[in-house]
Design goal:
Elements: H1 2-29, H2 35-65, H3 70-90, H4 94-98, H5 102-107, H6 111-134, H7 141-168, H8 173-200, H9 205-228, H10 234-253
Helix pairs in contact: 1-7, 1-8, 2-3, 2-7, 2-9, 2-10, 3-9, 6-7, 6-8, 6-9, 7-8
């Protein structure tokens, strides 16, 4: 059983890295996505991640903790949210930078700002990977795959976003691609850390699942939804979010 789980973990890690890499490759060919479609795609991803965080992480955390242990799950969710909140003190909010138009990027293409933006995305990859990896310690690995699916969907547009600022700042295409690969590898590290921590102790598993769920909820609420509502396409983004949420619910229930 453990060999099967490790195989699934490795496949998950490779899939998440591949989705980021695919997004980066697309970023070389698609220089600019209209805000309308970007908000729709990101809204759909936000809906999938919203469902994944609740159905794939927080609900399994409650089931794993058992009756009367609601405080353990609640504490884990709060801890996950606080962890990313602390990270946001040291790194910029993605929606404050990623929402710039291409003309604004040109006028503000200082390498330090670009590298800060890339670091912001890179640092978000680690907790995302942990969220995906920790779920493979639970009884139902289908929940872990649901979480991984939601993250992988988000990775594609996120991978695209990294490319343009680096190229505009004068970084070579080869070096830009290598940077995107390094970012993808951070998620692989996160998956292995998440799985390893969850395997150390079954007592910690509900807390780790809840923390991962709280971290994902924070990302959706603080980063993704504000970005989709920043360009006047709130209704489209909201409909897309609901569609993404329902998509994962249907996948989980087998409808």
């Amino acid at each position: 059983m453990e060999n099967i789980s490790m195989t699934q973990v490795l496949i998950c890690a490779a899939g998440l890295a591949l989705s980021t890499t695919i997004g980066s490759i697309l970023g070389f060919f698609i220089k600019e996505v209209p805000h309308k479609w970007n908000d729709a795609i990101l809204g759909y991803c936000a809906g999938v991640m919203l469902a994944a965080s609740t159905i794939g992480l927080i609900v399994p955390a409650a089931e794993s903790a058992g009756l009367g242990k609601w405080w353990l799950v609640l504490g884990g969710v709060i801890a996950g949210m606080l962890f990313l909140n602390v990270m946001d003190v040291f790194i910029p909010h993605m929606h404050r930078i990623a929402g710039l138009d291409s003309e604004e990027h040109i006028n503000n293409a200082h390498l330090n700002n670009v590298l800060l933006f890339v670091m912001a995305i890179a640092l978000h990859k680690l907790p995302e990977g942990i969220a995906a990896g920790v779920g493979f310690n639970s009884e139902e690995t289908s929940d872990a795959w649901a979480v991984a699916f939601g993250i992988a969907l988000q990775n594609i547009p996120e991978g695209m976003v990294v490319i343009a600022p680096l190229i505009i700042a004068g970084v070579s295409k080869m070096r830009t691609f290598l940077i995107s690969l390094a970012i993808a590898m951070l998620e692989v590290v996160g998956v292995m850390i998440g799985y390893g921590i969850g395997a150390i102790s079954r007592i910690l598993l509900p807390v780790m699942l809840a923390m991962a769920g709280g971290a994902m909820l924070y990302v959706v609420s603080d980063e993704m939804i504000p970005e989709t509502h920043a360009h006047g396409h709130q209704k489209l983004a909201t409909y897309s979010l609901i569609l993404g949420f329902v998509t994962l619910v249907f996948m989980e229930t087998g409808l």
